[in-house]
Specification:
Blueprint lengths: L1 E3 L31 H7 L19 E3 L4 E4 L5 E4 L1 H10 L7 H4 L1 E2 L7 E2 L6 E9 L1 H4 L9 H19 L5 E8 L4 E10 L1 E7 L2 H4 L3 H4 L11 E7 L13 E2 L8 E2 L8 E6 L10 H28 L6 H29 L2 H17 L2 H7 L2 H13 L2 H9 L4 H15 L16 H10 L6 H15 L9 H6 L12 H14 L5 H7 L4 H6 L3 H44 L13 E6 L3 E4 L2 E3 L2 E3 H7 L10 H8 L15 E6 L11 E3 L5 E8 L17 E5 H10 L4 H6 L2 E2 L1
Helix pairs in contact: 2-9, 5-21, 8-9, 8-16, 10-11, 12-21, 13-16, 14-21, 16-18
């Protein structure tokens, strides 16, 4: 195994620097020596090789929140991220009487800081090890899919178990290039995370869903956590005697920010991109999956809004869920719009045609890779036969009672097995977070809303072909002979009312007790949602097993397809970088505006005055009165940017980002903190699949605006004094 800790080894498929196009690419740290010239030409003043040292500066200051990125900005474990990344913790600590979402939160001292959402973690990547041979050990070309899946899963779990013999660390094996390569990530895991500061939503979510993915933007999307450890300096569970973590490295904050054209980079953990998917996958995703998923999300959003008043206890419980649903609904809408008006599918088909010709031009290449694309597509089409069923069952997870019953019953089943044979999420390493998840249900659940979501999804369920339905669901919900034509909603509601009245899964005490129950105990239970979990398990497990069989077969084809594609790209001098997969990446570029359409040019900065111009006094354009008064009086403090005559709020960059980059620090040419990336423009959303340098723009909250609001609106001078501010 190649250990990648300090100067990291180059990947299997090295990339010549001449292949880089514009600012495209989410680069692994180990690839940076290959693009050193491009980084320097773009304006980086650091030695690019320094960015390969995971435990050095600045990489040692970059952390993951497990879905968002963040960074240490003080020597006392202060962590900066996006408002929407700490939003769940703000919501968790909010009530109708003390609505922190509305009013914001600031701890003026350590003892005022609040526990983050149960299960919150801060991950510090310390080692990356290439483990491809170990993961693929024992795998043969002709293995059945289920055996291949199991072998990869077992080998990965063994590596993780060995890595986690020190309980301070969380480890994971991640595949790159569709399973062509595998890497083991070792992360220090800080388990005591506390909320320090978040501005009011009228700052942190200014513009709301209307402005989401749009430019011009005026959102103060920032917030702060703090990492705590035991008195010995080691990770520990929450305890009142814990002390702030002292990181080896933290970022300096440059209050001068950046100018138009300046070099910027983002270090972070981008979630998922799909730039190497097949033309068939592209067409199916954009013509079926995204439209259906968008419709389901918008339906659930409407149900939550209809069944809860703004500011009510029920609405507060679902604010985090609403934000997530709305974000991706708009995301999918933009994807579909860009796809329909563009040439993406045509270009993807042309690529595959050219790849096929290139393979056939060499008998050796054709013998090795010729069947990889057709074999892969055949398997994907097989998987898509049940995609309507799978999507509906997937969205049923928004019913907390149904999903909680399933999880608790599965835990009892998995606990019967040796630890390494258990499913992911149910091993000993997972139980603490599982328990915290059970505790957090109370702050994420309202009976009326939960019931409405289940009614809505069951309406879609009964429209499925009979062959795709679960007999256990039909029996439990009284839908055996029910179709979309004779569906009786009133009858279903009557049945569900009885079920919800009888269930005890809405009790935290009961949920935690069930974690210790045996399979026999579950079979004897009279709780309706537990009974459903038990009766439906066999059918759900059969679906799961079929999915694993198919996944195992795909694991035999996609790596071969990726190997062929990478060889073709290298031959044609095209850029090669792995799709985003929630691992540490670097993306770089410059501050720059863009032209979204003919006749329109967007400048790279917005200002305080733009907040006033948008403000209506009604959410989401309801800036704090104090803020509006300061702007009216042109009170800029020390944070005005002379070139624009105001305080910059947000700015545009040419960085290649996606979900998961949220909260990533935006760094200047010296790796100083100059803001936070939090979004992309509407036209660049399709960049997850199809990068366009003309339209791809990232949106950043300017550090000047952060500091201006912190000092003059929220009085967070204690945090400003704690950070290392430079100019």
């Amino acid at each position: 195994m190649k250990k990648l800790k300090n100067l990291i080894m180059l990947p299997v498929f090295a990339l010549s620097s001449t292949a880089v196009l514009a600012d495209e690419g989410m680069w692994q740290p180990n690839q940076l020596p290959t693009i050193a010239k491009e980084l320097t030409n773009a304006g980086l003043k650091l030695n690019p090789n320094d960015l390969t040292d995971l435990t050095g500066f600045p990489m040692g200051a970059i952390v993951s929140l497990g879905g968002c990125t963040a960074s240490f900005v003080s020597d006392k474990g202060l962590v900066a991220s996006n408002h929407h990344c700490v939003y769940g913790s703000v919501q968790y600590n909010s009530t109708a009487e003390n609505n922190l979402l509305k009013n914001g939160f600031l701890a003026k001292s350590f003892n005022e800081e609040l526990p983050a959402t149960p299960g919150s973690r801060i991950y510090v990547t310390e080692e990356i090890t290439e483990v491809t041979k170990s993961v693929k050990s024992g795998i043969t070309d002709n293995m059945p899919g289920s055996e291949r899946y199991k072998a990869i899963d077992t080998n990965s779990k063994k590596l993780v178990a060995e890595c986690e013999n020190d309980d301070r660390y969380r480890c994971s094996v991640v595949n790159f290039h569709g399973g062509l390569e595998y890497y083991l990530f070792k992360q220090l895991t800080i388990r005591d995370v506390r909320l320090v500061h978040a501005p009011a939503s009228s700052v942190g979510k200014y513009g709301g869903d209307i402005d989401n993915w749009m430019w011009p933007r005026h959102t103060g999307d920032y917030g702060f956590y703090r990492a705590y450890v035991g008195k010995d300096g080691q990770p520990a569970d929450f305890h009142k005697d814990n002390v702030p973590y002292e990181p080896k490295h933290h970022l300096k904050v440059n209050k001068s920010s950046v100018d138009d054209g300046d070099y910027i980079m983002v270090l972070g953990y981008p979630g998922r991109t799909n730039r190497y998917r097949t033309a068939y996958e592209v067409e199916n995703t954009f013509s079926w999956t995204y439209p259906q998923a968008k419709a389901y999300r918008e339906e659930i959003i409407d149900l939550i809004h209809t069944n809860s008043e703004v500011g009510s206890e029920a609405r507060i419980k679902y604010e985090s869920t609403l934000a997530s649903l709305a974000n991706y609904a708009k995301n999918y809408g933009s994807m579909i719009h860009s796809y329909n008006k563009g040439t993406f599918l045509q270009r993807k088909q042309e690529l595959e045609s050219n790849l096929g010709k290139w393979l056939k031009s060499s008998s050796k290449r054709n013998a090795q890779y010729g069947e990889s694309l057709s074999g892969l597509n055949k398997l994907i089409k097989q998987d898509d036969k049940q995609q309507a069923r799978d999507l509906i069952l997937g969205y049923m997870r928004y019913s907390k009672m149904l999903s909680t019953g399933n999880k608790l019953h599965r835990l009892a089943i998995e606990k019967q097995k040796p630890n390494l044979e258990r499913e992911r999420g149910y091993q000993e390493r997972d139980l603490a977070r599982f328990e915290q998840g059970m505790k957090s249900v109370d702050r994420r659940y309202d009976e009326k809303i939960d019931k409405e979501i289940l009614v809505a999804m069951l309406k879609h369920y009964v429209a499925l072909p009979k062959v795709d339905r679960l007999k256990s669901y039909d029996k439990f919900f009284g839908l055996k002979n029910v179709t979309a034509k004779n569906f009786n909603e009133k009858k279903l509601r009557t049945k569900l009312s009885k079920i919800y009245k009888k269930t005890k899964l809405n009790s935290q005490k009961q949920r935690l007790a069930l974690m210790n129950n045996s399979v026999a105990d579950f079979k004897d239970s009279n709780d309706p949602f537990v009974k459903l979990a038990v009766s439906s398990f066999k059918e759900r497990k059969a679906i799961e097993d079929a999915s694993k069989e198919l996944a195992g077969n795909i694991q035999a084809y996609r790596p071969k397809y990726m190997e062929a594609l990478i060889a073709y790209f290298n031959d044609k001098n095209l850029p090669v970088y792995a799709d985003a997969n929630s691992t540490l990446r670097i993306t770089y570029g410059n501050v720059k505006g863009y032209s979204p359409q003919d006749g329109l040019t967007a400048t790279p900065y917005t200002t305080l005055e733009g907040i006033v111009a948008k403000d209506t006094g009604i959410a989401p354009f309801d800036a704090p009165k104090k803020q509006l008064e300061l702007i009216k009086n042109k009170f800029y403090g020390d944070y005005a940017k002379p070139e624009i005559g105001s305080v910059p709020v947000n700015y545009l960059g040419t960085l290649d980002i996606t979900g998961g980059n949220s909260g990533s620090p935006t760094l200047n040419d010296k790796a100083e903190f100059v803001g936070l990336v939090f979004d992309g423009v509407y036209e660049s959303i399709i960049g997850d699949w199809d990068y366009d340098p003309k339209l791809n723009r990232s949106i950043h909250v300017d550090v000047r605006y952060m500091l201006w609001v912190m000092e003059h609106i929220d009085g967070a001078t204690n945090l400003i004094e704690e950070m290392d501010i430079v100019e």
